[in-house]
């Protein structure tokens, strides 16, 4: 299985730029409680194994060396399930004692990163983008923060991201004012150290509070036509196994 969509050689080139990743795995998963009540979303069973393993396999295939798992709700279960290593990658755990949101969780985990670009991933979604190409694009445009954008038929559940011809992010449209097909934030970010250092401590949302402030300051979006899955609702969770198996 090669979920990133490139050859093994191409994916190995990721390590020239990206050596470590953060997976945001601390969400409460309230919308999914009716079907996944006893564990965090990243441990939800998909295709006979925890959902998180699909991302970990993709990152191992891409040659990453260290993964920082940003846990919270039932975080002890994540650490018990995976321990200190997975397929040769070091696993480190940064656990929040209270809900901090995506921005606060990354700020809390900042001491674990070595200073290169961090690949930050929302742990309740999956996107089959070529990570090597993403890293090369990030370096070429000189971004301080990059977002992978997925095309969906209805943006009303996610909100829409508008970019200029250069790839610079121009605006984020809220869910309520966004309908029909368009490009959405796929939850796979590349964040330079200069960006990481400016994420404020304390509760906050990367998507709502931080990214909008960086419009015009090195924030770029990369549209990619690739399969996108979000397991945040019972309906989308029910489709997850067939979606992921189709990519093997």
What do you see in this structure?
This protein has 248 residues and is of the alpha/beta class. Helices cover 26% and strands 28% of the residues. The protein has 9 helices and 14 strands. It has helices at residues 8-12, 51-61, 75-82, 101-109, 131-141, 193-196, 206-210, 234-238, 240-246; strands spanning 20-25, 45-46, 49-50, 66-71, 85-86, 89-95, 118-122, 125-127, 145-152, 160-163, 169-173, 182-191, 219-224, 228-230. The strands form 4 sheets. Strands 5-6-4-1-7-12-9-13 form an 8-stranded mixed beta sheet, sandwiched between helices. Strands 2-3 form a two-stranded antiparallel ribbon. Strands 8-14 form a two-stranded antiparallel sheet. The termini are close together.
List keywords for this structure.
single chain, 248 residues, alpha/beta, 14 strands, disordered N terminus
Give the helices and strands, then pairings.
Layout: H1 8-12, E1 20-25, E2 45-46, E3 49-50, H2 51-61, E4 66-71, H3 75-82, E5 85-86, E6 89-95, H4 101-109, E7 118-122, E8 125-127, H5 131-141, E9 145-152, E10 160-163, E11 169-173, E12 182-191, H6 193-196, H7 206-210, E13 219-224, E14 228-230, H8 234-238, H9 240-246
Parallel strand pairs: 1-4, 1-7, 4-6, 9-13
Antiparallel strand pairs: 2-3, 5-6, 7-12, 8-14, 9-12, 10-11
């Amino acid at each position: 299985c090669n979920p990133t969509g490139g050859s093994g050689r191409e994916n190995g080139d990721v390590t020239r730029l990206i050596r470590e990743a953060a997976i945001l795995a601390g969400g409460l998963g309230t919308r999914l409680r009716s079907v996944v009540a006893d564990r965090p979303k990243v441990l939800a069973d998909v295709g006979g194994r925890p959902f998180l393993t699909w991302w970990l396999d993709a990152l191992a295939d891409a040659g990453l060396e260290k993964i920082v798992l940003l846990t919270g709700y039932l975080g002890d279960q994540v650490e018990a399930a995976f321990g200190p290593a997975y397929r040769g990658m070091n696993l480190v755990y940064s656990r929040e004692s209270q809900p901090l949101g995506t921005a606060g969780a990354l700020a809390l985990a900042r001491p674990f990163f070595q200073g290169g670009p961090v690949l930050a991933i929302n742990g309740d979604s999956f996107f089959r983008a070529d990570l090597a190409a993403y890293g090369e694009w990030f370096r070429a445009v000189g971004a301080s923060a990059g977002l992978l954008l997925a095309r969906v038929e209805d943006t009303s559940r996610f909100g829409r991201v508008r970019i200029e011809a250069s790839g610079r992010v121009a605006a984020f449209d809220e869910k309520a004012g966004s309908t029909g097909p368009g490009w959405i934030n796929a939850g796979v970010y590349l964040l330079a150290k200069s960006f990481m250092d400016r994420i404020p401590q304390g509760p906050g949302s990367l998507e709502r509070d931080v990214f909008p402030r960086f419009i015009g300051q090195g924030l770029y979006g990369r549209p990619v036509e690739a399969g996108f899955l979000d397991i945040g609702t019972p309906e989308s969770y029910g489709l997850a196994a067939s979606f992921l198996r189709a990519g093997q």
